[in-house]
User: Fold these one by one.
Assistant:
Number 1:
Amino acid sequence: MAWLQLKLLSQADQAEHLSELLTDVGAVSVTFLDAADQPLFEPLPGETPLWDNTLVIGLFTADVGTEDLIGQLQQLWGTTPLPSYRWEGLEDQDWERVWLEHFKPMPFGKGLWIVPSGYTPPDPDAVNIHLDPGLAFGTGTHPTTAMCLRWLDRHPPQNKQVIDYGCGSGILAVAAAKLGAENVLATDIDPQALLATNDNAKQNTVTDKIQTFLSPAMPDVSVDLLLANILAGPLQQLAIHFARYTKTGGELVLAGLLEEQASDLMQHYSQWFAIDIDQQVEQWICLHGTRLDTPACETIQA
């Protein structure tokens, strides 16, 4: 079946209403896209932030009467003109095949692979993580995740206690477990991430090594390695917590920050960690730190 997409350029405060109206006039689905390359930072639970300039895209069957539909939409919208819009055709495709063409087995370092369903591991003797994209972030395709995976490949956490903070799909937790970690605590603010992490742990037969927690329910533990692939803002705010979670001499791997954010973040973390840049891919930075023998208390300057 062929499809038509109606794309409307709206302001953030119009997008939800437009979505409802598109559904009312028969849209099969409605999607929001960024129209101006504006970053959105990690939302709190229950928040759905939108871009200042948002493309609202309604999907319709190809036989829809476009002029009549625009007339209905305008009537529901009111007396002011509809936001700028255009129709585009969408060729029918085998979407599973298209996905498989774009997400193939990927190596990270010398002995670690991410292998999606439907593929035979290219290197059966490697540590192969079986993973499919889901609703949670983390497939290994983004530079920040890739840098963390390469760090783990170079430094397998054999018999270590590990935290994956902001676990998303659980890709780093699973990698740490399959690379020999004794146990991994995976935490996130999004319950969907914990579901994805548990599913991927089961798929990779490491459920005995991974425990999941919503971030506010994280136990008071002290670990050998803390991994956090999130964003610079939360990394800044969580520094003192990460210092408490990490044993003296333990290691810290931070990703999700941009080159221009690295200096300030490193200065902040230097209160508790000997920290430096480990890798850089394009504008993305991965930091590595070693926990100093300094107290993590509120009296230290934040």
Number 2:
Amino acid sequence: MPITRRMLSKVPEVTLWFWIIKILCTTVGESFADWVATTVGLGLNTTTVIFTVILLAVLAWQMSLSRYVPFVYWLTVVVLSITGTLYTDILTDALGVPLALSSAVFAAILAVVFGIWYARERTLSIHSIITTPREGFYWLAVLVTFALGTAVGDWTLELTGWSPGLAVLLPVGLIAAIVAGWRLGANPVLSFWLAYILTRPLGANLGDWLARSTAEGGLGLGTAGTSVVFLLAILATVIYLSITRADVIDNPDAEKPVAVAHPRERVMLGYFAALAVGTAALLGWASAQPHGTSPALAEGPTGPVIDAMPAGQSAIAKFPPADVTAFRTIVTDTQTKVQAGDQAGAVARITDLETAWDDAQDRLEPLDPTGWGFIDGKIDRALKAVRASAPDPAKEKQTLTELSTALQ
């Protein structure tokens, strides 16, 4: 029988610092992925390939160590967060997979990972990561939780029409309820992984809230600004932990069996089930309320979408030519993909337009609120046509042509 190499713990102790830096990492995953793919202009597919290669390199570095090193461990978490976000975006934006389906698929994959992990190792505890197989299962589970959390978070926004700022309250409330359940006797390993999954939609919604313009109910930091702020916060926290060793598990006791479960553990399973039913009921109620199809397209405080410009007035006359040229290029690319029958490519490209338009709103809307509202309406209709579950090529070409004409 092969001998499994035992190491010092490869993961940090689960303290308040753990959860703080985990949320910082998940926020960076959302904002940095959007910044590289759209603002830098590499595109979703290219960005995903780049970060997959980076992930493999960083993960190999982490796996080669024999103990927990804060910088390498949290670098791995950051890259996993970005990569998991990109994998979900590929399914949603490039391949057109509904968020409900991708959420279900990632949940099933996570259940399989946990099932195989437990069948082989008889534990899912974070305190037991002292062998290479366990660490491999751990990082695979972390990657899937990032993808699952991204899909569930985006699906929640799609269902409810909530703004990211409002949507933050749901995972915050659920995490608080899970912590309360753990305190009352719920299984600690189950409680840990439930909270771990929920930090992903919390971080994603927090990132969106910080990055979006003030007109959209955000703080207007942009994806670049949000990424810089949170990367610096992560770096400062990692330096502190490296110096103080406040989260190092010096004596992992992975093999000590738990003789008797907490007497309220089964009761708390019912509590978690009731929490899940209550959350589903809340989301069902929210989805039935009137709301827009996408938070990014929600009507801003300046007024409704404008259907027509005043006679003789151009919608783009007051906007910087460089911005208009960039928007026009994306529209042309989308038209080309629709014409070629590349629906996945068209969806991905028009998503670039949505992000670029949203990022520029704070600059453009004050220059000409009427022109901005007119173009915003054209973009809204084009997005709906291209992203339709059963796209109509004629409708796509019509809305894109109207948008292209408005940008001339």
